[in-house]
Amino acid sequence: MSDITVLVAARNHAVSGRPVRSRADAAAAALALGMSSAVRLLTAGPLPDAVARDYLALGAPLLEVLECGEDADIAARLLPALRDVPWVLAGTRSESEHGTGSTGILPYALAAALQRPVVADVLGIQAEGSAWIVTQALPKGARRRLRVQAPAVLVVSAAASPTLRHSLADAMAGRIVRKPLQATKPSSVPASTPVGQRVAGSKRRKLLEARTQQSGHARMLGAIESPSTGGAVLQAGDPHTKAQAVLDYLRTHSLVHF
Amino acid sequence: MSTAYAPQGQLRRVDPRRPAIITPAGLRRIVLGSSEGERISANRLDAPVAKAARSAGPFHRATMVVARAERGALGDAARQAVAAAAILASADTEVILAVLGPCHDDVAALGADRLLAAEDFDANRYQPAACVQWLQGLQAAWAPEHWLFADTGFDGQLGRRFAVQAGLGLACGVVELGADSLRVPAGAGQDWLRPHAQVMLLAKGVASTKLPFVGLGVREPALPVPAISENGIEDLGVQAGDPKTLALEEADFILAAGNGVTDLPLFHSLALEVGAAVGASRVAVDDGRFARAQQIGATGKTVSASAYLALGISGAVQHLQGIKDCRHVIAVNLDASAPIARRADLTVVEDSAALMRALLELVRQQKEAA
Description:
Order of helices and strands of chain A: EEEHEHEHEHEEEEHEEHEH
Distance between the termini of chain B: 72 Å
Number of strands of chain A: 13
Helix content of chain B: 25-40%
CATH topology of the domain at 4-179 in chain A: Rossmann fold
Radius of gyration of chain B: 26 Å
Number of helices of chain A: 7
Oligomer: heterodimer
Radius of gyration of chain A: 25 Å
Largest sheet of chain B: 7 strands, parallel
Strand content of chain B: 25-35%
Mean pLDDT of chain B: 87
Low-confidence stretches of chain B: none
Number of helices of chain B: 10
Largest sheet of chain A: 9 strands, mixed
CATH class of the domain at 4-179 in chain A: Alpha Beta
Strand order of the largest sheet of chain B: 8-12-7-4-5-6-14
CATH superfamily of the domain at 4-179 in chain A: HUPs
Order of helices and strands of chain B: EEHEEHEHEHEHEEEEEEEEEHEHEHEHEH
CATH topology of the largest domain in chain B: Rossmann fold
Largest interface: A-B, 87 and 107 residues
Number of strands of chain B: 20
CATH class of the largest domain in chain B: Alpha Beta
Number of domains of chain B: 3
Mean pLDDT of chain A: 84
């Protein structure tokens, strides 16, 4: 039993619509394989063999596929397989990849069910004794380092770019284990998936706007006037006073720190 | 009688300052032949009118919008979330804005009726569990019917954590919000159309921030963010990004050069001194003065810096596209009528080299004094 499990899934290619390897999940697997060579890849739901081999080509020895129904609760299906695993890694889902309208919620739901902390936006991992030093991506290029004790769930950032190796030998040698759904237990109550109807994505999305009652005159003015008219203009003075004005502006909006 | 009738065969003269009354609907109405009303010139009607409050209360229900303020200001996505809440709210629903960190924005104009700001929030500390607990405290105090978050970065993650912890229904990445329905991408070229969820994370561009009304804008100190330890996680500190190695899209402060900048060593030493990333317009890049990766604009990069200092850039439309997400734009140009002056918050009419020299001297002085 390995210490690290990486959750992977197929995503539909944006153009062809075929299932392909998700780049975010591959990055998570590559980060995990940098820590240990015994990494288990795990997925619930359909995963074609070609995609599974693509994941195994990263160097993992084992990929487990938990088969489940179309509308089954994936978190509930994954949960028993993750109870004894100290480290669970997942990739960040982008908006178009997930079909349930709860994009990227799976790691949080799993962590809540397992009562473990979640660390999001993981860029890199280093081992330090039994703990891991995790580098987290923050906006504006800042990085945060965290010492994380097992067990934990890590969500790998979309910006993480480890080198993805592709080894044909590993892809062929890796094992794909498919575990069928036990028919004895009817899958627990389908997660409170809200009802709804499907509409074509090409249908125009309507902007939410406040209803206004404007006079015709105001509407005509709105049609001709430009929305932005610019800010202050500084014409007079020598370069020093102007430089001082620029610096004052930066200081009042706390844009510089010295 | 102010309307004068000329003799037959001549042009009819109309007094442009005929007395008019303002109807309850806000429309200006001229009753011909009447001397009742006010003589308003057309210009006075163009002046911005003070907007009425959306609802004066009393409120029985609440919608909560949660955001983190950066440098005392809310981001675009958070402003859209507040506007969406205000547009959807009924007359007895209060729009409460809960902000992590101090907030100096005019929240009434954003549409919020009440601002709860946790002023002591330290953005550099790692405390997601404390933030979730803070939100649960707000839930106990206000019992809002809906929670709105912007689905970006910190706010989006906080919304997910909170919804999972509190066991509330969640809709992520909402791309369209209606009076009683929302739309989320379902993959494979289709979208889900669903009823409102308790927690909604809004994608960018869902709502228009142009509001015909204002909120009440009551400011109230919020409960402090509780000090609880993160289970099994130790914070080793934040390292600020190095502007020289940073991708331009991520940079917080950008110094950009255009055709008006010829003294490159001076420009680079100023960028180093103020700690800014270096960008350039297409002309300067084509000229070979800067690398292609530093080009900002339609054919280059689109940046979202907090501060953008444009030196010697006239501001072609393609360049302005690249800086549309920048919060503060300062332009230095010899031509006060250049297009960038319409975009910039501060335009300085000066030779860029002279201003760079003065600014560099000033920054060095202040750094020595500090």
